């Protein structure tokens, strides 16, 4: 830890800290929430907890250059408290009440704004509003959090006994009301200082709503969003939370019955419309979590590995890497859909994920709907891969893709679908092979029953155990 201040800097105390108010902090978060990946998650809320930053920040020093105040400090990591502290620096325009620059010099996120920077700015806001103008408390000292494990090696049981709370003196309600109706200026200042130290429920709710709105704007997959509006969500995560609160026997069949009792077609249709941006929509990703979707139906019906990559993918423990083939598909899909639309004299309508109350653990997201048909698009990059999408006689999709289209037909209540595979030379030739597929309930039922068994045996236990 440093023993001397940086050249040109002085030790910080209650008299020389810059003023950082709620507006300054909120503006700083708003500007950086859009740019920094680490701040798009719940870490920003954890870093803003007073129980953390009041103990984590130490060795604070300041320097002023005109209207600009430069502040440096050390921030102790939240978990590895014995590790070296992180050096954080920020510059604040005192007339404009604006954070011009803030960065952490030591962590891997030093190119941008990390959680240590957020904790430091939150500490400045707290201290600049907490102290009186004449306060001489020096902040050039070691952070309390960094002392953990260095002094007290053990605690005797006797010292852990909770002290009885002190009894407050009786209050004269009449006198108290009179004092409230005729407040002195000193009383007002005391209440103002107290309110700044302890935000009221409205301030807490306002900050929480601000944070949630920014996470939603950035289409974040932060776990915080999974806790919001859980009573109205058809996400299996939220349905499982609600299920575990019931007195029903906790098993897979009862959970499925519970989901059927809560879900309705009207809300499923609204989700179908709201999630038409698919992968770009956070709700679309939430609805897929824990469900057997059309694209993996065939794999789920054949899988014999209880804790392999497929189970991890369904349960959200792993993600599918973005490959060049997937990127090609995203780039060509709009052109292929337009090509198919012209061929069938119509416009392909984008839709989201389709759910159904009677089969709550299944979901399907066709690439589009054309009149009374579902449309599924594939864009292979080689002719060898192109052939793998079809049966040997090229009259129907290969089983894995046939199962995908069949579930889409069932969920969307359509009798026919268009399986469209763009040729590798599509960019220059515009050629698309289209195979019409009719709903085959016998083929589909067998696959869905096997996939359902896989879900009950391997996915349900994971979802259930994930909720404490």
Automatic annotation (TrEMBL):
Residues 283-410 form the YqaJ viral recombinase domain. Residues 165-200 are annotated as: Disordered. InterPro entries: PDDEXK-like_dom_sf, Restrct_endonuc-II-like, YqaJ_viral_recombinase. It comes from the Eukaryota. Gene3D superfamilies: 3.90.320.10. One of its GO terms (biological process) is DNA repair. CDD domains: PDDEXK_lambda_exonuclease-like. Residues 181-193 have a biased composition (Polar residues). This is YqaJ viral recombinase domain-containing protein.
């Amino acid at each position: 830890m440093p023993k001397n201040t940086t050249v040109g800097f002085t030790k910080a105390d209650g008299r020389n800290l810059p003023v950082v108010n709620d507006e300054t902090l909120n503006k700083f978060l708003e500007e950086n929430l859009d740019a920094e990946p680490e701040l798009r998650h719940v870490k920003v809320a954890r870093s803003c907890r007073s129980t953390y930053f009041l103990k984590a920040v130490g060795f604070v020093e300041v320097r002023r250059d005109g209207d600009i105040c430069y502040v440096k400090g050390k921030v102790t990591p939240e978990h590895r408290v014995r590790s070296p502290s992180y050096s954080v620096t920020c510059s604040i325009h005192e007339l404009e009440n604006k954070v011009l620059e803030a960065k952490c010099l030591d962590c891997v996120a030093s190119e941008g704004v990390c959680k240590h920077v957020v904790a430091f700015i939150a500490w400045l806001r707290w201290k600049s509003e907490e102290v009186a103008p004449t306060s001489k408390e020096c902040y050039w000292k070691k952070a309390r959090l960094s002392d953990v494990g260095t002094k007290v090696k053990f605690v005797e049981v006797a010292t852990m006994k909770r002290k009885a709370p002190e009894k407050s003196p009786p209050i004269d309600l009449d006198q108290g009301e009179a004092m409230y109706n005729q407040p002195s200026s000193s009383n007002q200042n005391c209440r103002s200082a107290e309110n700044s130290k302890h935000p009221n429920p409205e301030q807490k709710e306002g900050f929480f709503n601000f944070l949630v709105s920014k996470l939603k704007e950035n289409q974040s997959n932060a776990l915080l969003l999974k806790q919001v509006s859980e009573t109205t969500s058809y996400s299996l995560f939220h349905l499982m939370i609600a299920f575990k609160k019931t007195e029903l026997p906790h098993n897979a069949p009862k959970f499925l019955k519970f989901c059927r009792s809560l879900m309705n077609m009207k809300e499923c249709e609204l989700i179908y419309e709201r999630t038409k941006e698919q992968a770009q929509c956070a709700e679309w990703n939430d609805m897929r979590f824990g469900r057997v979707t059309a694209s993996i139906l065939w794999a789920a019906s054949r899988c014999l590995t209880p804790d392999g990559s497929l189970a991890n993918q369904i349960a959200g423990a792993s993600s599918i890497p973005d490959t060049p083939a997937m990127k090609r598909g995203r780039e060509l899909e709009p052109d292929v859909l337009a090509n198919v639309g012209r061929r069938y004299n119509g416009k392909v309508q984008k839709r989201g994920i389709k759910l159904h109350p009677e089969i709550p653990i299944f979901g399907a997201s066709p690439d589009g709907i054309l009149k009374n048909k579902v449309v599924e698009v594939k864009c292979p990059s080689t002719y060898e891969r192109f052939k793998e999408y079809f049966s040997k006689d090229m009259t129907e999709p290969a089983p894995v893709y046939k199962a995908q289209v069949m579930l889409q037909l069932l969920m969307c209540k359509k009798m026919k679908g268009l399986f469209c595979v763009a040729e590798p030379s599509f960019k220059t030739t515009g050629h698309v092979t289209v195979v019409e597929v009719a709903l085959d309930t016998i083929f589909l039922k067998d696959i869905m029953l096997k996939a359902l068994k896989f879900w009950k045996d391997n996915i349900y236990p994971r979802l259930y155990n994930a909720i404490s």
